[in-house]
């Protein structure tokens, strides 16, 4: 039997297919199974190996365990401020309201969070959050989250067995990459993929699909993301007819490792700053005090003494500027390095050694301690770390309905990092783990509901054969090596679409990307189909390409600076741009951009902010109708 014999295709079927086994995918799978549906979860990497497992700092939820003043309204306000008011307000509202329940629910599934002295779930400070809000397990929160959700999956499988089912109705297939979605009449009906280990093909019929594939970070060389984050879900959705929004907004986390070169980009958790670490330049100055933007001046300390007092007395002092939202801190580091005040290897210093005792550091930041000791031979209890910005997260993603997580394609849902809107132009730390729990659950629930009313779809041999032919094309090509092409793509993005952008450079990026298009279409793979990472990368490249074009086009169009999009030639936020989402779709294989209104916040939610604050972001006609209720002002709510 030849390699590409159609008879080798495995045929599977389920009610709800979940693509991605990170936090969003697993939470969706649990919900869909609890709703009585048969579920298949597919994961490109090993089961359990997802971004979620790498999450360090914690999950943001206004439980009020450490500061009783916290509540969903304060969390909502922080999230909108962090996103510079471009967020889909309804997603931010649902997220703030439901995150505490999603965390407590994890406890009922068996999660063991760190505790306060009174025995409640402990919560830590993070940038942009007014109160300590991140439920955590040391600096290994994602590991506990994934462990717990996997355990829940196993218990649901055991329930199936106890109920006498011959096979569980919740199946997990790992090391399998989905390369195509099947669409008929504007609705999804299944997916096609290959097993990485054997190269064998698989076709899965399903009336409802949840995309939970994470981000795009591997389109940049310096990134905290791992190999599988190649924008697959974003690209699958585009090709299926769904839309992407806000693709210009990419988060460069301020603190990645910068030395040695082999580990450049690996994340240094924000918890280091949340737990007292400060940023210094080569002159030993705490430079963040020079970078507090006008819109945040009221909330951040303007001197080190007040900033330091805040750690023990947050009710009477303002936060230190090291805890500004990530976009602000990343830009500040970039400016210090550019001004010649950087560290030896092109970053700045992050110092916790002079601020906390060695035992506290080792207890609160065990992974960071080991990471620096083992990878850089630096003892963070005795010396500062060298850090610099690293591509970390994409705020842009599949446009979804806030309540149902449904995309524009019938039966196609999205949750977690692959979806867009929730975080506006910049995500606050900790808001991703809570986002994926809240919207993972919703996606599972509504996908199950969609499947209930749907007929079992049929996949045709012709469409399966076409998907197989596409997947095998690199073996017949005589083009370039996929690794060389990935490097070329990363170089364009890093040089021209990075942390600071200019119109001329973005135009250059689009020209260079266009030149890469045919080279990527002609990428070649050699060898057999079993365990062939070169072939796998060849298939991923077209996804990275289309995401990169969407980002560069939107970054060129948005001539203002906001959150994770900084235009040197258009500094400052423009209130007119705040009203606009840039929406990408695919027409005849080309990425097209359209402008779409950002949904207007309800008067009740506008009323949670003071007019003076809204006036910094919005035009007068937008906030003019806001009635500021004195009982819910920024200080009191
Ligand atoms: C080092 C690090 C630390 C972080 N710390 C925090 C933190 O403390 N708090 C916080 O809120 N956020 C944090 N984040 C961000 C957060 O972890 C991620 O945004 C989040 O986990 C994304 O979850 P997800 O479920 O959307 O996707 P992921 O967890 O990324 O999972 C994606 C899944 O999709 C699969 N997949 C991808 N493509 C395909 C395909 N084609 N076919 C089949 N499967 C596919 C992958 O194999 C994987 O199973 C951190 C991120 C990193 C990198």
Task: Describe the protein's architecture and organization.
This protein has 19 helices and 20 strands. The strands form 5 sheets. Strands 7-3-2-11-18 form a 5-stranded parallel β-sheet. Strands 1-10-9-8 form a 4-stranded mixed β-sheet. The chain has a 4-stranded antiparallel β-sheet with strand order 17-12-19-20, with helices on one face. It has 4 domains: 9-54 and 139-251 and 393-459, FAD/NAD(P)-binding domain (3-Layer(bba) Sandwich), CATH 3.50.50; 252-391, Succinate dehydrogenase/fumarate reductase flavoprotein, catalytic domain (Flavocytochrome C3, Chain A, domain 1), CATH 3.90.700; 470-580, Methane Monooxygenase Hydroxylase, Chain G, domain 1 (Up-down Bundle), CATH 1.20.58.100; 603-632, no CATH class. The protein starts with 9 loop residues before the first strand and ends in a 14-residue tail after the last helix. The chain is of the alpha/beta class and 637 residues long. The chain binds flavin-adenine dinucleotide. Flavin-adenine dinucleotide (FAD) is lined by residues 19-25, 42-45, 50-52, 54-59, 141-142, 177-178, 212-214, 224-225, 228, 232, 267, 393, 416-418, 429-433, 436. Flavin-adenine dinucleotide binds next to helix 1, helix 2, helix 5, strand 8 and helix 12. Residues 499-526 form a coiled coil. Keywords: Coiled coil, FAD, Flavoprotein, Oxidoreductase. This is Fumarate reductase/succinate dehydrogenase flavoprotein subunit. InterPro entries: FAD-dep_OxRdtase_2_FAD-bd, FAD/NAD-bd_sf, Fum_R/Succ_DH_flav-like_C_sf, Fum_Rdtase/Succ_DH_flav-like_C, SdhA/FrdA/AprA, Succ_DH/fumarate_Rdtase_cat_sf.
């Amino acid at each position: 039997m030849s390699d590409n014999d159609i008879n080798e295709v495995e045929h599977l079927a389920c009610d709800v297919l979940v693509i991605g086994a990170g936090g969003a995918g697993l939470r969706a799978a649990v919900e869909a199974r609890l709703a009585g549906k048969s579920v298949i979860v597919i994961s490109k990497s090993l089961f359990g190996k997802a971004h979620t497992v790498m999450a360090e700092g914690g999950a943001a939820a206004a439980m009020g365990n450490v500061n009783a003043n916290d509540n969903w309204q304060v969390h909502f306000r922080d999230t909108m401020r962090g996103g510079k008011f471009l967020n889909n307000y309804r997603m931010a509202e649902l997220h703030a309201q439901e995150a505490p329940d999603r965390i407590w629910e994890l406890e009922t599934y068996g999660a063991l969070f760190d505790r306060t002295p009174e025995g409640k779930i402990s919560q830590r400070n993070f940038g942009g959050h007014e109160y300590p809000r991140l439920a955590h397990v040391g600096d290994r929160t994602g590991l506990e989250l994934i462990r717990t959700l996997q355990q829940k999956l196993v218990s649901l499988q055991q329930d199936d067995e106890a109920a006498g089912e011959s096979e569980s109705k919740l199946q997990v297939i790992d090391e399998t990459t989905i390369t195509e979605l099947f669409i008929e009449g504007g609705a999804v009906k299944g997916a096609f993929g290959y097993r990485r280990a054997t190269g064998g093909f698989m076709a899965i019929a399903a009336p409802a699909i949840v995309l939970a594939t994470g981000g795009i970070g591997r389109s940049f060389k310096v990134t905290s993301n791992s190999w599988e984050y190649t924008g697959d879900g974003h690209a699958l959705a585009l090709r299926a007819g769904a839309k992407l929004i806000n693709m210009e907004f990419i988060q460069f986390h301020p603190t990645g490792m910068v030395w040695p070169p082999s580990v450049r980009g690996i994340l240094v958790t924000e918890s280091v700053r949340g737990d007292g670490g400060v940023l210094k330049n080569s002159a030993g100055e705490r430079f963040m005090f020079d970078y507090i933007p006008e819109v945040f001046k009221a909330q951040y300390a303007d001197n080190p003494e007040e900033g330091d007092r805040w750690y023990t007395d947050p009710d009477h002092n303002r936060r230190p500027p090291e805890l500004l939202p990530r976009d602000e801190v990343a830009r500040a580091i970039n400016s210090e390095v550019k001004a010649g005040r950087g560290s030896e290897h092109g970053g700045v210093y992050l110092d916790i050694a002079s601020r906390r005792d060695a035992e506290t550091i080792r207890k609160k930041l065990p992974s960071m301690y080991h990471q620096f000791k083992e990878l850089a031979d630096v003892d963070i209890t005795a010396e500062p770390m060298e850090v610099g910005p690293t591509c970390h997260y994409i705020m842009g993603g599949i446009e979804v309905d806030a309540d149902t997580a449904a995309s524009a394609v019938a039966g196609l849902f999205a949750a977690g990092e692959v979806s867009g809107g929730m975080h506006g132009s910049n995500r606050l730390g900790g808001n991703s783990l809570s986002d994926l729990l809240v919207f993972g659950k919703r996606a599972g629930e509504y996908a199950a509901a969609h499947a209930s009313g749907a007929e079992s779809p049929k996949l045709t041999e012709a469409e399966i054969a076409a998907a197989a032919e596409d997947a095998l094309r690199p073996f017949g090509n005589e083009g370039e090596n996929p690794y060389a092409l990935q490097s070329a793509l990363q170089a364009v993005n890093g040089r021209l679409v990075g942390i600071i952008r200019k119109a001329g450079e973005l135009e250059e990026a689009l020209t260079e990307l266009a030149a890469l298009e045919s080279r990527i279409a002609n990428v070649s793979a050699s060898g057999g189909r079993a365990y062939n990472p070169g072939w796998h990368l060849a298939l991923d490249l077209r996804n990275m390409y289309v995401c990169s074009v969407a980002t560069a086009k939107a970054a060129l169009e948005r001539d203002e600076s906001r959150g994770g999009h900084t235009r040197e030639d258009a500094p400052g936020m423009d209130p007119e741009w705040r009203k606009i989402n840039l929406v990408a779709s695919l027409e005849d294989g080309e990425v097209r951009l359209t402008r779409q209104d950002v949904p207007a916040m309800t008067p009740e939610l506008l009323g949670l902010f003071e007019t003076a604050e809204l006036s910094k972001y919005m035009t007068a006609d937008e906030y003019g109708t806001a009635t500021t209720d004195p009982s819910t002002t920024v200080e009191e709510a």
